């Protein structure tokens, strides 16, 4: 149970959260037409006669949209309904040329499922299961543009008919952190499956945030719905601000009204958009132009077989088979691109060192999550923009693994790889950075360090063993980081007695 509470003037309040996530299905055509779905096209350039609701035009379901919804349902261990149906949801709006939206109210394609979220990256025990009520497939509406003309609004129908999955959670979340963790995990799963690109800034994934408050243990309160929130951070802010607003309203003697609200990120506040009764009368009825969707076992099996290794399974494998820490496994599986990059790096590192992946996994994971991420962060680049490829990273790690260069030199080499695009081996050869395993040179450097620090030698021999690290550091510094650390340690131990 979450211990998140709103502290009101009259005591503690608990927040209850449910999310309805609209995820644009990753296909090159719309749900019922062959029109394109590319982001950023000129207004009204991706509109078929079906999308524009020209008389006599009949919708034809896009098989790939159905397939992707089913694959998503299987990925969250949900009930897949072999029989589902499209309904017409009737309402008038300027960006809805048909005068109705084709959706699935009574018989959705995906039933109940669940997602497990982790609330603390460093604590594998901090998990919570969030129930999912349903996933239904529906078409998107167009878009009204109010800023193109001083007195008129323009209509862009490029999004009209775009295929959406509406993923409806149970009201199982009790804090902004839980809502954020759920949305992040859902986005990760969709991106692994490939059913939605998860680009919230482009509108291909957005959340309607349902929030109510109650005294702990009491029945649910009246909820509000904040529409079209387009980032994880904003979803968390909506939960916090809307819960505080409702508590203040109730404590002042007012009542929460069931309504639709909008979030203003500049002011960090929600504001009323329109009131909402318990249910609008949309006059739902089965769409007469569309037959029910009937799925057979072979189709379901093909969907199941097409799924990749999903984030929870991958994370478990990284921890148990590769021996990575829970934290590193979490970082490496959070984004599908990161896990793909890591696996390419791991394969290259293992091949170039002639070792099993399990033996080099920690080296590869630590280098990627600390060294490369840190260096790219300084450059303001993401992993997919990295000038260093996984194969080039594997070659650098192989030089360390084989003792050709030390770990500290490897950091310098990485900087030069990012600057020049040259291979690690070329840089090491050109700049004379190879590690010295010449015992004579190491002994000479150690003798000089010990002679210059005779007082510390006495302290060490008198029992202050922590000084050993100081001697190692001074020797490596004297050798410009090129001394073989293992040999430096051995020579120092022998000479310090």
From TrEMBL:
The entry's keywords: ATP-binding, Ligase, Nucleotide-binding, Protein biosynthesis, Transferase
SMART domains from the UniProt entry: GatB_Yqey
Class of the enzyme per the UniProt entry, highest EC level: ligase
Superkingdom classification of source: Bacteria
InterPro entries: Asn/Gln-tRNA_amidoTrfase_suB/E, Asn/Gln-tRNA_Trfase_suB/E_cat, Asn/Gln_amidotransferase, Asn/Gln_tRNA_amidoTrase-B-like, GatB, GatB_C_1, GatB_Yqey_C_2, Gln-tRNA_amidoTrfase_suB_CS
Any one GO biological process: glutaminyl-tRNAGln biosynthesis via transamidation
Enzyme Commission identifier(s): 6.3.5.-
Listed GO MF terms: asparaginyl-tRNA synthase (glutamine-hydrolyzing) activity; ATP binding; glutaminyl-tRNA synthase (glutamine-hydrolyzing) activity; transferase activity
Catalytic activity: L-glutamyl-tRNA(Gln) + L-glutamine + ATP + H2O = L-glutaminyl-tRNA(Gln) + L-glutamate + ADP + phosphate + H(+); L-aspartyl-tRNA(Asn) + L-glutamine + ATP + H2O = L-asparaginyl-tRNA(Asn) + L-glutamate + ADP + phosphate + 2 H(+)
Pfam families on file: GatB_N, GatB_Yqey
Gene3D superfamilies associated with the record: 1.10.10.410, GatB domain, N-terminal subdomain
Every Asn/Gln amidotransferase domain range: 340-496
PROSITE patterns (alphabetical): GATB
Subunit structure: Heterotrimer of A, B and C subunits.
HAMAP family: GatB
Family: Belongs to the GatB/GatE family. GatB subfamily.
Function: Allows the formation of correctly charged Asn-tRNA(Asn) or Gln-tRNA(Gln) through the transamidation of misacylated Asp-tRNA(Asn) or Glu-tRNA(Gln) in organisms which lack either or both of asparaginyl-tRNA or glutaminyl-tRNA synthetases. The reaction takes place in the presence of glutamine and ATP through an activated phospho-Asp-tRNA(Asn) or phospho-Glu-tRNA(Gln).
Name of protein: Aspartyl/glutamyl-tRNA(Asn/Gln) amidotransferase subunit B
Gene: gatB
């Amino acid at each position: 149970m979450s211990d998140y509470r709103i502290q009101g003037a009259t005591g503690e309040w608990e927040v209850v959260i449910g999310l309805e996530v609209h995820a644009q299905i990753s296909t090159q055509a719309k749900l019922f037409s062959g029109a394109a779905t590319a982001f950023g096209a000129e207004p009204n350039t991706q509109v078929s006669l079906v999308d524009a609701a020209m008389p006599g035009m009949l919708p034809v379901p896009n098989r790939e949209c159905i397939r992707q919804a089913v694959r998503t349902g299987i990925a969250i261990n949900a009930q897949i309904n072999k029989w589902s149906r499209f309904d017409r949801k009737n309402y008038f709006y300027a960006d809805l040329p048909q005068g109705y939206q084709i959706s699935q109210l009574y018989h959705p394609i995906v039933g109940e499922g669940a997602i497990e979220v982790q609330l603390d990256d460093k604590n594998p025990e901090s998990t919570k299961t969030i129930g999912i009520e349903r996933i239904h497939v529906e078409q998107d509406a167009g878009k009204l543009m109010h800023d193109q003309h001083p007195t008129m609004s323009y209509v862009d129908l490029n999004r009209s008919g775009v295929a959406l999955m509406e993923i409806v959670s149970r009201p199982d979340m009790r804090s902004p952190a839980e809502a954020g963790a759920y949305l992040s995990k859902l986005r990760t799963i969709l991106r692994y499956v490939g059913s939605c690109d998860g680009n919230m800034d482009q509108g291909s994934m957005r959340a309607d945030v349902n929030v109510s408050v109650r005294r702990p243990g009491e029945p649910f309160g009246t909820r509000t719905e904040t529409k079209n929130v387009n980032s994880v951070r904003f979803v968390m802010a909506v939960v916090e601000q809307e819960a505080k607003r409702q508590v203040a309203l109730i404590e002042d003697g007012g009542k929460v009204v069931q309504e639709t609200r909008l979030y203003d990120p500049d002011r960090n506040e929600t504001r009323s958009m329109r009131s909402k009764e318990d249910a609008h009368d949309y006059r739902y009825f089965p769409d007469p132009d569309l037959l029910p969707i009937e799925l057979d076992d072979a189709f379901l099996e093909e969907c199941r077989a097409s799924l990749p290794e999903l984030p929870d399974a991958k994370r478990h494998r990284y921890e148990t088979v590769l021996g990575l820490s829970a934290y590193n496994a979490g970082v490496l599986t959070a984004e599908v691109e990161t896990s793909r990059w890591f696996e390419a790096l791991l394969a290259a590192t293992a091949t170039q060192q002639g070792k099993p992946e399990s033996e080099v996994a920690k080296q590869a994971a630590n280098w990627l999550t600390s060294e490369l991420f840190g260096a790219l962060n300084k450059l303001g680049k993401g992993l997919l923009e990295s000038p260093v490829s996984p194969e080039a990273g594997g070659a650098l790690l192989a030089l360390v693994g084989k003792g050709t260069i030390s770990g500290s030199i490897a950091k310098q080499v990485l900087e030069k790889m990012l600057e020049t695009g040259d291979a690690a081996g070329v840089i090491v050869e050109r700049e004379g950075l190879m590690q010295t395993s010449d015992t004579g040179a190491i002994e000479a450097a150690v003798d000089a360090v010990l002679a210059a620090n005779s007082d510390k030698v006495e302290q060490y021999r008198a029992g202050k063993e922590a000084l050993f690290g100081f001697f190692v550091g001074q020797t490596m510094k004297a050798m410009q980081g090129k001394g073989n650390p293992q040999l430096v340690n051995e020579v120092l131990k022998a000479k310090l007695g």
